[in-house]
Amino acid sequence: MLLDKLLSNLAVEVQPFAVCQVSNGWRLRLPGPSGTMLHFVLEGGGVIRCLKGGQHPLKPYSLSVVPKGLAHTLEPHGRIFDELRIDSPPPGDKVCHIAAGPEGESGIVLSCGLIKVKYGESLGLFDHLHDILTADFSEAPQVKEIFSSIVSEQSQSLSGSDTITASLMTACVVHLLRQLTEQNEEQLPWLVALGDGRLGRAIDKILEDPAAMHSVESLANVASMSRSAFAEKFTAAFKHSPMQFVHQLRMFRSAKLLHEDRYSIDEIAHKIGYSSRSHFSEAFKKQYGKSPAAYRAA
User: Fold this and answer.
1) In this predicted model, what pLDDT tens digit does every residue of 38-90 receive, in sequence order?
2) Beta strand pairing status for 26-30 and 82-85?
3) What CA–CA distances, in Å, run from 48 to 72, 82, 254?
4) 33-42, 83-92, 168-177, 190-199: lowest mean pLDDT where?
5) Which CATH class is domain 2-186?
6) For 196-297, which CATH superfamily applies?
7) Is residue 35 left, alpha or beta, with left meaning phi > 0 and alpha meaning psi from -120 to 50?
């Protein structure tokens, strides 16, 4: 499937999670996150409320995706009498515990953390989200296991923990995108676009062979659209032009190949569509801030 090809090229990063308990009568007030924030409900229920207006229900095993910069509160059911305000992320590189109100009392318990889900260096899958997304995983117990495993892994800080955590979160993202695809979620235009057979054919062509001599005209032909209509629809869905998307994919693929250390830099340049090492090195340094050789050695 096209979505599978897209997912196979994702880079997922997970910052240390927090386990948050909000007692009855209390709320947890959070600033606008510096990136995409997840809240997964482990126990209890309530609402997640946007400070600019609007709210979404929190149920056991529901997941809320909060876009960058959106201040919000987490509240159990019932009247609120007090609150704990968090003005900045807790320091440290391990899982922390946050309690709003007396510990051990009923209310709501969540696993919360910041993630980055990128296609290359700058194509963030949730970067253009404007409102909170919610998904109900009460029928998918494996998602609860994923979050429990992430918290457990981050608590230990063992060798390879970041790799394991990223793999676990990638699985969670797959579950989320499966559900959003079924819902035809319009808040993620790029996801809806994958269901458009015309754009889908063009994306599939790029993913299949990013090194090919793609152009807006050639991709528009694959999509059976005019050049202008294709470019407009593609940019509206992905917030990048078709050729920016091709470039990002080439850079992402080259970074992976450099890490694998199986090919020479000249071979990698050829594999991703550059006719010379010097042109590839120039583009790579502009993207990543260092030469391919320095990136490989880092």
Assistant:
1) 999 999 999 999 988 889 999 999 999 998 899 999 999 999 999 999 987 77
2) parallel
3) 7, 16, 40
4) 190-199
5) mainly beta
6) Homeodomain-like (1.10.10.60)
7) beta
